[in-house]
Amino acid sequence: MRKNCKVINTSHAPEAIGTYSQGIHLGNIIYFSGQIGLNPSSMELETKFEDQLAQTLSNIKGLLESEGLNTNHIIKTTIFLTDLSEFPKVNKAYEEFFSKPFPARSCVEVSALPKEAQIEIEVIAAKDGPI
Question: Is residue 68 part of a domain?
Answer without folding.
Answer: yes
